[in-house]
Give the backbone structure.
Amino acid sequence: MSFESIPAVHRDDVAEILIPADRIATRLDEMAAEIDRDYEGKEVLLIGVLKGAIFVMADLARRLNVPVAMDFMACSSYGSSTTSSGTVRIMKDLDADIDDKHVIIVEDIVDSGLTLDYLVRNLRSRHPASLEVASLLTKPSRREIDLPVRYVGFEVPDVFVVGYGLDFAERYRGLSDIVVLRPEAYGG
Ligand code: PRP
């Protein structure tokens, strides 16, 4: 496999390109078309969960034809470890009310489901007109709490993935592809 799309400084850290940028783009086209159909005649409020979701937010929002507003939240559950601690805290809340809005939470990945479970319960209590979830990736094998994710990009196996917003210790977010790290790169 050619790693030419990976910056040279990171190339030795990568075991495999799991989802190349062109497949991400194609899948986002499909997800956006589905959202356009489902929300025809409505305005959508995308809520991006910082920081991982920034590229999904930007690329999904630009593909939608329905009117789109955007807001962001930041939650903390991970620190720099590779597994969830199970503790969710809001580090940055929304700028505006969401009552009567058609909200879609936008995530890069649903792993244990703990972050999303907390967010869904928190946002539901603010009385949106509707609340759904769009996530580029899901790792079903790691799920601790089952919750419906209406729009899913790709199901991924239980491997350590980074890129396209996903990090390890704040690195690799800017990679265009979703890649699997070599265990040596994360001390695994
Ligand atoms: C990641 C991801 C989700 C969450 C998913 O965020 O963006 O928000 O973990 O994991 P879970 O399903 O096990 O709760 P992270 O806390 O790593 O922050 P980041 O987006 O800033 O990298």
